[in-house]
């Protein structure tokens, strides 16, 4: 399709950019023997699972629906972690998952006998914070995620095949090195008894400048010292910088600063913009005041704070202008919503020079979530 005729808003994922990320991750697997999984909580565009499955070992899920998606659409290793499992869901999880990670020993005692053929692990909390985003810090005081060393049940360690930790968010391998040291200090006595160690996600492996050599040294030392298979569960690294959100300027409102009203929404279509907060890159723009004309970019929802940010341009924006926000493959499609009855963006795939819309959404998608 002619990109100029595609209706907005639309997520556009670039297959070539995604493939480049996958090649980096596959090379890491090849050099170290570790196993890399797609964390579906960040990116779950299952039309691309056959491609991703040619490079990675499988999927990681946060519950039954993601586990089913990974099983149905990729069909490779299928891992699941949840802070709590329900009686109604657990037996199905045991049938379709290869690894089940518990968040507490009470959950292990409740469900462990129903594991089937699944390998069982325990999430641990090394109580080592290396980031500034409290909302995404599993090691923050009062965290519900992972067993602390003082609460670890040594008498039940023999029931486990592995340990799992996830403490990072968009970080380099120096943060992982610090956290692994804390893990070994607090839980090292149990590691020789384990078959695998899952280091979770938050590793920005495919970001320019990431210290891959340090990551490889960490993986190699853990595998050599403890005889474990090391797993990684990146989500962002799989689709980092591989997608855009295209939007159209619907109106210009004159205020203290001119405001461009978009047909896309931060609250509905890119929630991390408000949650982190996060300022997505925008093609052809600069920081506020950097270029001649500065605009506040906002949505047509009724939420006063539904603002993407302030950007500057070489010329004034006008109704009908197309804008392209970058790095919009991750934590967008998986988190979007229909607040205010906002339409969900279509999903498109760019392959070479061609952009093809592969899914559209309409009123029934909004109505179907309600009753």
What does this structure look like?
The mean pLDDT is 96. It is built from eleven helices and 17 strands. The strands form two sheets. Strands 1, 10, 11, 12, 13, 14, 15, 16 and 17 form a nine-stranded mixed β-sheet that branches. Helix 3 packs parallel to helix 4. The protein has helices spanning 15-32, 49-53, 64-73, 87-96, 105-111, 173-187, 212-226, 236-239, 266-269, 272-275, 363-367; strands at residues 10-14, 35-39, 58-61, 77-81, 99-102, 119-123, 162-164, 196-198, 229-232, 243-253, 259-262, 286-287, 293-299, 307-313, 322-326, 346-351, 354-359. The chain has 371 residues and is α/β, with parallel strands linked by helices. It starts with 9 loop residues before the first strand and ends with a helix.
């Amino acid at each position: 399709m002619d990109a100029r005729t595609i209706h907005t808003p639309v997520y556009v994922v670039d297959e070539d950019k995604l493939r480049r990320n996958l090649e980096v991750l596959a090379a890491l697997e090849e050099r170290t023997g570790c196993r890399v999984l797609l964390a579906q909580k960040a990116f779950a565009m299952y039309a691309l699972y056959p491609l991703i499955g040619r490079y990675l070992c499988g999927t990681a899920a946060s519950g039954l629906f993601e586990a089913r998606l990974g099983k149905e659409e990729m069909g490779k290793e299928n891992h699941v972690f949840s802070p709590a499992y329900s009686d109604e869901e657990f037996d199905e999880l045991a049938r379709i998952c290869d690894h089940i990670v518990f968040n507490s020993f009470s959950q292990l005692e409740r469900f462990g006998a129903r594991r089937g053929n699944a390998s069982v692990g325990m999430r641990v909390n090394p109580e080592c914070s290396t980031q500034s985003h409290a909302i995404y810090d599993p090691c923050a005081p009062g965290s519900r995620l992972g067993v602390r060393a003082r609460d670890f049940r040594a008498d039940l360690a023999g029931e486990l095949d592995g340990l799992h930790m996830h403490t990072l968010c968009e970080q380099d391998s120096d943060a992982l090195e610090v956290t692994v040291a804390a893990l070994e200090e607090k839980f090292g006595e149990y590691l020789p008894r384990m078959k695998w160690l899952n280091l979770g996600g938050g590793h920005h492996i495919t970001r320019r400048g990431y210290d891959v050599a340090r990551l490889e040294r960490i993986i190699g030392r853990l595998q050599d010292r403890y005889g474990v298979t090391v797993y990684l569960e990146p989500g962002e690294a799989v689709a980092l910088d591989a997608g855009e959100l295209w939007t159209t300027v619907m109106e210009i409102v004159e205020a203290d600063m001119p405001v461009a009203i978009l047909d896309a929404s931060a609250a509905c279509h890119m929630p991390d913009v408000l949650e982190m907060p996060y300022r997505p890159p925008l093609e052809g723009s600069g920081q506020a005041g950097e270029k001649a004309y500065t605009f506040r970019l906002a949505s047509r929802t009724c939420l006063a704070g539904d603002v993407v940010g302030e950007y500057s341009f070489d010329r004034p924006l006008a109704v009908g202008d197309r804008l392209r926000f970058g790095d919009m493959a991750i934590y967008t499609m998986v988190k979007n919503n229909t607040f205010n009855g906002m339409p969900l963006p279509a999903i498109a795939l760019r392959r070479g020079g061609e952009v093809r819309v592969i899914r559209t959404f309409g009123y029934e998608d909004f109505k179907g979530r309600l009753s």
